Please model this.
Amino acid sequence: MADLMIDRARSVLAVIDVQDGFLDKLEPAERAPLVARIAWLMRVARALELPVIAMGEDLPANGPPVAPVLAELPPGTPVHDKRVFGLAGEAGILSALQATGRDQAVLVGLETDVCVAQSALGLAGLGWTVAVAADGCGAPGPAHAAGLARLSAAGVIVGTVKSLYYEWVRDLDTHAAVKAAVGGELPEELSL
Model:
């Protein structure tokens, strides 16, 4: 029987375009909680020794990812300059993903209906198993829900930060070890 869940031994976390210009399009009350959930999932990935690939759209023009995201990158981790909307179309980013030796990608970031969606669809088209954390990505207005619906209809796994966490963790001993490694404080609207 095939394992239909996301497996930490096969996963890479892709953090897409968590930059001020894209966050500024969201309602003010949505911004900090979204960034906190993304940063927390990055800490979890590090605790589980999952590769983290970070990128920003047009870094020279739009600037780097926000400080909480940069703070969670393992030392020496580059931030890739993404010049296309779907990360699979950017040779350097795709090479970095392939170099991990993994075949599952968990995506978080902005915007759900454009860069996250095109990245997920592009990777799925290349044979990757792709999951998107619905509460780990965002887009203004109805675009978020539309992006998630498009992804779900295309067979991309749409979960939550919490559900993907538990798929990575799988058992109580690992859960306890990860909680100890990342600390007990959880982002707003997240309970374990």
Q: What stands out?
A: DSSP finds nine helices and six strands in the chain.
